[in-house]
Amino acid sequence: MVLDVRPLAEDDFADWVRALNTGFLRAPSSTEREVEDRRSSVDLSRVRGAFDDGRCVATYRSFAQRLTAVGGAEVAACAVSNVTVSPTHRRRGLLSRMITDDLAAAKERGEVVATLIAAEYPIYGRYGFGQATRMAEWEIDVPRTGLDPRWSGPDDGARIDLVDPADVRKLGPELHERVRRATPGAVDRSDRWWQTTTGALRLDRAPWTEPFFAVYRSAAGEVEGLIAYSCDEKWGDGKQPMNTATVRELIAATPAAERALWRYVCSVDWIVTVRTGPRAPDDLVASLFPNARAARVVTLGDWLWVRLLDVPAAFEARTYERPGALVVEVRDRLGFAAGRYRIEAGADGRGTCAPTRGTADVALDVRELGSLWLGDESAVRLAALGRLTEERAGAAAVADALLRTPRSPWCPDMF
Question: Which of 215, 377, 406, 413 is buried deepest, with most CB atoms within 10 A?
Answer without folding.
Answer: 377
